[in-house]
Specification:
Length: 208
């Protein structure tokens, strides 16, 4: 009897928290019929979230939209990703106990970090990665698992490491795949703006 109850408990928990949910809406009420957000993802400051359609946001992510978070069409945020648009760690060190007593908005405190994040169309954010305040992820970019992004990631770049650095260009593989599946060229060009005319060599490592 106990084993049966446990099975039903797991199934109920799975149904409530571990199933992808379709049909998000923007703050203006526009239906995003193909966007999927896992119920286990935490979104803080949801009023600051600009969400496009065809977005995938997986399990156990933390999305801080208090400073403004824009996620463009087709972006994929996998699992256990943290995206932050503010941080108080410097301000607390500067102010000590006075931090909690400071009047006015938190963003006015000395050393407080508060900046928007933008994730471009069809970008991929790998598991356990961290996107820091003020970062911009270019369209088609790939952020590898466990990467720590601070700043700019160029369009189509592959970045890895802590801090993240450019280690490649997705268009190298994309060109090979499009040669293999030429019927996909129109779909690719529709969001990318152009076809990868020739394989791209890996970019030299640069701070992201």
């Amino acid at each position: 009897m106990k084993a049966m109850l446990n099975r039903w408990r797991r199934r109920l928990w799975h149904a409530l928290f571990y199933r992808m949910v379709f049909g998000e809406r923007t703050a203006q009420g526009t239906l995003l019929a193909h966007t999927r957000v896992a119920p286990s993802t935490c979104i803080e400051g949801e009023a600051g979230l600009q969400l496009a359609d065809h977005v995938f946001i997986g399990h156990f992510n933390f999305l801080d939209a208090t400073g403004g978070l824009r996620i463009d069409e087709g972006a994929q945020i996998t699992n256990f990703v943290s995206i932050v648009t503010h941080s108080s760690h410097r301000a607390i060190r500067l102010m000590g106990r006075a931090y909690a007593l400071h009047a006015g908005p938190a963003s006015a405190r000395p050393g407080f970090i508060h900046a928007p994040v933008h994730i471009g169309a069809y970008a991929f954010i790998g598991p356990h990665s961290l996107i820091e305040a003020g970062s911009r992820i270019g369209k088609g970019a790939v952020v590898c698992a466990y990467a720590q992004v601070r700043g700019e990631v160029p369009d189509f770049a592959i970045v890895a490491g802590q801090p993240a650095r450019v280690v490649g260009d997705v268009r190298t593989r994309d060109a090979e795949l499009l040669a293999q599946y030429p019927e996909m060229q129109g779909h690719y060009a529709a969001w990318a703006g152009a076809l990868p005319s020739e394989p791209h060599a890996a970019s030299p490592a640069q701070p992201s």
